[in-house]
Specification:
- The complex is a heterodimer.
- Chain A is an alpha+beta fold.
- Chain A folds into 3 domains: 142 residues; 85 residues, Orthogonal Bundle (Helix Hairpins), CATH 1.10.287; 162 residues, Histidine kinase-like ATPase, C-terminal domain (Heat Shock Protein 90), CATH 3.30.565.
- Chain A is built from 12 helices and 14 strands.
- In chain A, a hairpin with a 5-residue loop joins strand 6 and strand 7.
- The radius of gyration of chain A is 47 Å and the shape is rod-shaped.
- Chain B is of the alpha/beta class.
- In chain B, 39% of the residues lie in helices and 21% in strands.
- The chains are: A alpha+beta, B alpha/beta.
- Chains A and B meet through helix 6, helix 7, helix 8 and helix 9 of A and helix 1 and helix 8 of B.
Amino acid sequence: MRFNTLLRQFVRISGFRLALRSLALSLGGACLVFVIIHHAAESTWRGQIDSNVSGALTDLLGDLQTNHQGLAWNVRATMAEGNGLFYAALAPDGSWEAGNFRLTAPAAARWKGMETLRPRDGLSLPPRVDAVRGTAVRFPDGEALFIAADATALRSLDQLISRSFLAMFGTIMALGLLSSYLAAHAVQRRVDAFATTIRNIMDGDLSRRIELSGSGDEFDRLATGMNAMLQRIQELMENLRQVTNDISHDLRSPLARLREHLELSRARFSEPALTDMFEEALAQTDQALGIFAAMLRIAEVEAGARRAGFGMVALSPLLTMLAESYEPSFDANGITVEADIAPGLALHGDKELLAQLFTNLLDNIMLHAENVSRVSIHAAQAGERIEVSIADNGCGIAAGQRARVMQRFARLEASRHRPGYGLGLPLASAIAALHGGRIRLEDNGPGLKVCISLRTSLGAMRLGEDHARVQ
Amino acid sequence: MRILLIEDDAKAAAHLCQGLAPEGHEVQVAPDGRAGLLAAASGVFDILIIDRMLPGLDGLALLRTLRGAGVQTPALFLTALGGLDDRLEGLRAGGDDYLVKPFAMAELAARVAALARRNAAPPKATTLCIADLELDRITRTVRRGGQKIELKPREYEVLEYLMLRPGQVVTRTMLLEDVWGFHFVPQTSLVEAHISRLRGKVDNGFSPALIHTYRGAGYKIDAV
């Protein structure tokens, strides 16, 4: 299983695939070369044997014609000259007459023309001889003559060629696989380093850069380009942050001063009409300042720098505390709160931001949901995640509107006259994302169910992503 | 109270002086960090109110220097920076409280009063009493006129917080920060609902009413 996963992982690396392709090509080339060598060497040897055998046959046939001594006699006479060839003369009834090897009747019957034969084909040859190549001649009187030359060398050549081929094949294969593995491993390491750096940057650490190997290879060139791009992005982000801070400061300061003036002026007048006007003006100013604060908070959460201060947060006590804390407010509006919170839930995160996430969702029910009589808070562990849901049985949000309420400043028609800036859900969503989670809005039939899925640790998030990448 | 206000913005300083004067405080203004450091080091002030962004020497460095020199005067930071880490930085530099601009004058007045009390006598008593209301901090039980009152954990904490500051106005934000640990303001009346519950349990059926509401400012527990 582990090997398969590893193999699949390697096969996905382009360098590994390239190396495998060139390995297959080298092996194909080697095969072709060996086929040619083998064919050339064998046909040369075979041609030489065949000409020896035909020469000896011609001589013997010539002798037979001139001396009329019969086949057996001529065979014996030729053998006496000692030319190293194998002869066998068979009588018309198939019995052996003369020669230096014997053969069985089926072998004799099968042997026609030039053939290569081995002892196991029914030939009795001296032990050192592994194969012979020769021909058969059948005379009109029923006698038969078999002449063959030692073909052991031809067979040895065959074996030698195939053995060296296998050795060469194996070496190329092993070296090829090893170099493919090393290439893939090196590529994998570089790509992993890229991916880790990029993930850290996405997590909010914009100061990270991809390390160069110093070899000036294509990865270094790519990394140099990416580092330059990151530098540019960081500068732009820095500018944006500076501008945001300046705007927030420059706009907040006059607003704050306006507020101070309104507050001081209110104290000077006692007429109820004027006081009411001041109250209204103060409320509007506070609303503008509140929008600023919420916008800045979302930007701060989205920047991700907050992750640096993450610690273990005991979620069960936090949710229990929130359920308890909201109970009086809900109760005053005739709403009962049910909490089903699994004990011991904990996650890596920011306690204050998590509190703000759930607070925003509970506030939303209080501010925007109509005809609610019951709110249920549910939290449970689900593998590497904690699933929290906050559901009400009120009017809910139409399916078509659910995506819209997650956007900034989006407010449904029905809630225009109620307090709020349309930033509560976007902030909750940004906080969930900071914790490697997300928020879904579902129908609670009737009412709205807000599901918050959070990772128990960002380490788990990394592992999870790697796993997903390998699959 | 003698208050040293270190604030470079003359308008803001004037506004704060105007706001704090009715509370009976004597406010001296230092227009920059260096002047502020010198004045604060004299040790004649009961409370320091420091703007975080000052020309010359910024508020954090100023307070760090003072604390390094052994000046323990309670200090409250005022700042336009409402970031999540800004408050922590202020507290780490030795600040006792942190208020993000803009704020209601009543909020500042309540916090100044709280800082002044903190300096006077840290509460160590295990039993707190206001008239016939008794709170036992060890058994976490509350009685009024000898009759036991059942409180939810958060209600108990709100009551304890108020009883530790008798006669002193406690703002909604102070309760959110210190009882709930929230440095943000929920949009619903979390605090109001708790006070209302608490009043129903502590004051309903008893006389006199002990928990008082100050519109636009906060709450106070007092026998008067």
